[in-house]
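Progress report, Aim 2. The chain analyzed during this reporting quarter is listed below.
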Amino acid sequence: FILYDRAIHPEAIAISKQVLYATSVHKRKIVKVTADGKASDFVQAGQDGLACVLGIRIDEKRNVLWASSSPRPQMENYDTTANSAVFKYDLTTGNLIQKFTLKKKAEAVFGDLLLNKNGEAFISDSHTNTIFKVNEQSKQLEPYFTSDELWSLQGITFSEDEQHLFMADYIKGIFRLNTKNKEH
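Predicted structure tokens for the chain:
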């Protein structure tokens, strides 16, 4: 897979059925590249309120693509009034299924995005050092974990058995969270 547009500035990629999906920090979109090398926009620039697209995951079982997005100065047409959000798209059509934002407009930098085996989405916020969980029933983002020990929360991933959540902190390194009792 080759992305010839150097201005895309990809932050994350996901692959499903020989199709690569790449986020674009600068262009505020999600690009799709097929196995034969054809690149196209899966989601257009700024569509549905996209800002910098920082995280992406595919849930093949549910035919969904999840993306996290936050306004950053690196994006085209930087807009300080834009909201950080989590987007749920139909993987076949590219249509928005649902968009999740915080109840109150707040400064947040939604970076990494993670899905558990049940298809539940978790998002890291490096501004508040909080991991949010999408509650699809209430249509809300709910705090899952936060700690004053974290300095700049970045990547997140589960252990194979999902008993632990590993969190990468830009300054302090790797933390391990017990998902049952939330001790780290």
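Residues 116 and 171 are 26 Å apart (CA to CA). The radius of gyration is 16 Å. These observations will guide the mutagenesis work planned for the next reporting period.
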